[in-house]
Design goal:
With 159 residues, the protein is an all-alpha fold. It contains nine helices and no strands.
Length: 159
């Protein structure tokens, strides 16, 4: 504010004041994005399009950075690590594929969502829902969702 006041001075007209203010605002828009944001946007976009199936190590290698650097940038800009984001997208892909009105083939759904072993799938499922897949399905059948829920796109809340 002091810089703007100094540029306007005591005798500045309304038009001059608006010109100075506009120039200040435009200069702020033209600032470079925060360091690392492009990396996070690119890697995050790959996680979105793959439904969390791209290994985080591959994201780091493709970007030419270490896994620790990628994780630090994600944490700084998105508030979560890329591994956590991948888990969210992978689980969302799985849970959105569940149709409680039909028989559910958990192994096929898990494989399609990117889970490669049953123990990993079961652990993740319990972490996200607090239930085993069988318990979750029983609850979904007992308390059917409202039309249009769960939503047909995007990740489910992780916590």
């Amino acid at each position: 504010m002091d810089r703007i006041r100094n540029r306007i001075g005591d005798t500045g007209s309304a038009a001059h004041t608006l010109d100075v203010l506009e120039a200040e605002l435009l200069s702020r828009l033209a600032e470079a994005p925060p360091r690392g944001l492009d990396l996070v946007l690119h890697a995050g976009g790959r996680l979105v399009t793959s439904g969390g199936a791209v290994p985080v190590a591959a994201l780091a290698t493709d970007a030419g950075v270490s896994g620790n650097h990628l994780a630090a940038q994600f944490k700084a800009h998105a508030g979560v690590t890329p591994k956590r984001l991948a888990r969210i997208y992978r689980f969302a892909r799985l849970i959105l594929a569940v149709d409680a009105r039909r028989p559910t083939g958990w192994p096929e759904l898990a494989h399609t969502a990117g889970y490669f072993d049953q123990a990993h799938f079961s652990r993740e499922f319990k972490d996200f829902t607090g239930h085993t897949p069988t318990e979750y399905l029983a609850l979904r059948r007992r308390f059917p969702a409202a039309p249009g829920f769960p939503p047909d796109a995007g990740p489910m809340p992780a916590d």
